[in-house]
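Recall the central idea of this unit: under ordinary conditions, the amino acid sequence of a chain determines the structure it adopts. In this exercise we apply that idea directly, starting from the sequence alone.
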Amino acid sequence: MPGPRIKKYFLEYNLTKTMLDEFLASYFYEAGYAGMDLYKTPTGYRLVIYAEYPGRIIGRGGSVIRKLSQVLQRHFGLENPNITVSPVPDPDLNARVVAFRIVRALEKEIPYRRVALAMLRRI
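Accordingly, the structure predicted from this sequence is:
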């Protein structure tokens, strides 16, 4: 049976990962945020962000990425974060991306039946 220190480590790691995922989902709402992977490396942390529009996450000249790395160091305690942004392999099969598309279409006041049928056809 694992000791209490091991349990505490995994609880803290997964809590940080969940809080980071929620933060990134709200921060990159317009970029079609689809998820992230967090890896601990010997030199720090490696963060892979998946998005429908990676260019919006990177920003002009990488300005948004630099701000994000400062936020990660200050608020989440991630030392030396290495951030990689990659596109979603198949956005039509990612539930979060499809949900964001539906929300955007409904915010534009497109009829909900037309939105639902269009999303089903794309899948």
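The CA atoms of residues 33 and 93 lie 14 Å apart.
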